[in-house]
Design brief:
Pfam families: Sulfotransfer_4 (PF17784). By secondary structure, the protein is mainly α. Helix content is 66%, strand content 4%. The chain folds into two domains: 164 residues, Rossmann fold (3-Layer(aba) Sandwich), CATH 3.40.50.300; 50 residues.
């Protein structure tokens, strides 16, 4: 999601098309060709909104390995409630989307994903969706292509599954609740700053044009 929200916001348009096709029947469902257009430059995909398309992506890329990160459902729910749920429902993001280009692509897609994937109410259905998602992935992926992995186990099992060398660096510990919220707020401050600069430039331009027009009128009246 970081790619679509910060690096290439137009990707949100394709994600929106995929969500509309799946949940609203608007347009053909995405197949390998469409997923390649959206994700063909990626080595891996994770997080939302990709989780809404577990079946579609597994069927489109039958050779892909799947890592299913596991955690306690209550811990997950409480974390999501304070992070992505907050982000998906905060009024300030909706206000920003009316003025900022990137947010205008990202916010509607996020809202559509959140409402559709969690059946209209995360607080009510979130834990049930969690269990259904894990059951679906386990049913779809052959055991030899599936790794159930708890973040924090370290590199060894993960690297063995992916058939890559174990890095010398320590396993990272990032993206906690506080860090997530602060990154979102920091980005929004920067986006509002860009909006303010555009408004200022527009206002200055209008004032300059007005001054030129006024001067021209004065000269014209003076000529008469």
């Amino acid at each position: 999601m970081l790619s679509a929200s910060t690096e290439n916001p137009p990707d949100c348009l394709l994600w929106s098309d995929a969500l509309a096709a799946k949940y609203d029947g608007a347009g053909p469902p995405f197949g390998r060709e469409q997923w390649d257009q959206l994700l063909g430059h990626c080595q891996a995909v994770c997080d939302w909104p990709a989780v809404a398309f577990a079946r579609e992506l597994i069927e489109a890329y039958p050779e892909a390995k799947v890592i299913l990160t596991t955690r306690d459902v209550d811990s997950w729910y409480n974390s999501v409630l304070k992070t992505v749920h907050w982000r998906a429902t905060e009024p300030s993001l909706r206000r920003l989307a009316r003025h900022d280009w990137a947010a205008s692509l990202y916010q509607p897609m996020l809202a559509k994903f959140w409402t559709s994937f969690f059946r209209g109410n995360f607080e009510k259905h979130g834990k049930a969706v969690f269990h259904d998602y894990y059951a679906e992935v386990r049913a779809l992926v052959p055991p030899e292509r599936l790794l159930e992995y708890r973040v924090g186990e370290g590199w060894e099992r993960l690297c063995e599954f992916l058939e890559v060398p174990v890095p010398e660096d320590e396993f990272p510990n990032v993206n906690d609740t506080r860090g997530f919220v602060e990154r979102c707020r920091s980005r929004m401050r920067a986006q509002w700053g860009n909006v303010a600069v555009r408004w200022l430039a527009y206002g200055t331009g209008v004032a300059a044009v007005g001054a030129v027009v006024a001067a021209a009128l004065v000269r014209r009246i003076g000529w008469r």
